[in-house]
Amino acid sequence: MTPIRQPWKGTMTARERFNRQMHWKSVDRSFNMEFGYWKENFKLWPLFYENGITNNGEADRFFSFDPIAQIGGNTWMCPAFEDKVVEVRGAKTVRTNSDGLLLEVLTSGRDTIPHYLGSSVTTPEDWKRVKEERFDRNSPGRKLNVEALVKAFPEERDYPLGVWCGSMIGKIRDMLTFEGLAYACYDYPDMVEDMVETCCQLTEDALDQLLPHFHFDYAAGWEDICFKNGPIVSVPFFRDVVMPRYKRIRKKLDQYGVDLWYTDCDGDVRPILPYLLEGGINCLFPFEVNSCAHPGELLDQYAGQLRIMGGVDKMALGAGRDAIRAYLKSLEKYVARGGYIPFCDHRCPPNVDPDDYLFYLDLKEKMFGMQA
């Protein structure tokens, strides 16, 4: 595979650049990264299929993005449920997934949100059984080969390395479904809190194995619990049940000098953002624009506290070059200020013209790359 773009010129290592940019310090140029692409892009974009690019990792190297890496432990089910096909119904296929959900997907394999038919956990009795079978803190699958990881990710690296901090409530949503979590918070609040506590303990266990052996540049998590109208759970529930667990994780990160912590949460995060910040999460990724706001709105509101990675409106990328140019112009002062790395606000969808996407990458370099 021959890269289609050369790395942006620079005088710093990717690691130095990332750390300085995310701490509002001067840099040679912006950190250059993207979040990835829908699966369909690899079949529909000629620049991908004609060059044998089949996944996001290959795409990162194809475009010569700045390197960034992440490691972590098993902070969820161990073992997972079996992922298998139950029935094919013409254009629809019914299957079970690794979270124990029964779901309906397109037989074609097109990348869409599944239709969920049922969950393995709906009552406290279900949770008790699944917790015993799949959330054992002492399961051999949770033991990390730290020695091998230290060899694979040496301290002398020139790229940023992150540590995975799991999910306190997002994966619970995956297990219960959107509707299931919404109901469970009211019908079985003690059960949901025990799920959150279990997720926190598993994350703490993984961090205890990793933190003493690495100088991490950031921490990362995943909490897809918001949609266009705000969070699935109530704000008081998030404040009183979820945020205290974040504080416990933040305490561990602080002990080892990891001050940057992002979470991936789509939708309108504004109602819970004060409690994300109070809990110790100080960066949003990849910051979905249309369900929330222009990234500048929150970067201004929480100046000196909040960082954002992402926030380039995917709708603008699909609307042509004038829209791309105008949107990147609106981000200019925030990139210059620091604490912000611009890239598509989720996986780039296939409706974006690949030639316009190359225009976007070139314009991003011209505006945010190293100036001669």
Short overview:
The protein is of the alpha/beta class and 372 residues long. The chain has 15 helices and 13 strands.
Summarize the helices and strands and which ones pair or pack.
Elements: H1 14-21, H2 41-44, H3 46-49, H4 56-62, E1 69-71, E2 84-89, E3 92-96, E4 102-106, E5 115-118, H5 124-134, H6 146-152, E6 161-164, H7 170-176, H8 178-187, H9 189-210, E7 218-222, E8 226-227, E9 230-231, H10 235-255, E10 261-264, H11 273-279, E11 283-285, H12 295-301, E12 307-312, H13 314-317, H14 321-337, E13 340-344, H15 354-368
Parallel strand pairs: 1-6, 6-7, 7-10, 10-11, 11-12, 12-13
Antiparallel strand pairs: 2-3, 3-4, 4-5, 8-9
Describe the protein's architecture and organization:
- The protein has 372 residues and is an alpha/beta fold.
- It has 15 helices and 13 strands.
- Helix 7 crosses helix 8 and helix 8 (178-187) packs across helix 9 (189-210).
- The chain is globular and about 65 Å long.
List the defining traits of the structure above:
globular; 4-stranded antiparallel β-sheet; 15 helices; alpha/beta; 13 strands; 2 domains; 372 residues; TIM Barrel; 7-stranded parallel β-sheet
Please compute the radius of gyration using only Cα atoms: 21 Å
The largest beta-sheet arranges its strands as 1-6-7-10-11-12-13
CATH class call of the largest domain:
Alpha Beta
> Element order, helices and strands?
HHHHEEEEEHHEHHHEEEHEHEHEHHEH
Largest sheet: 7 strands, parallel
Give the count of structural domains.
Answer: 2
- Strand tally is 13
According to CATH, the fold-level topology of the largest domain is: TIM Barrel
| Shape type | globular
Question: What is the oligomeric state here?
Answer: single chain
CATH architecture of the largest domain: Alpha-Beta Barrel
User: What is the arithmetic mean of pLDDT?
Assistant: 96
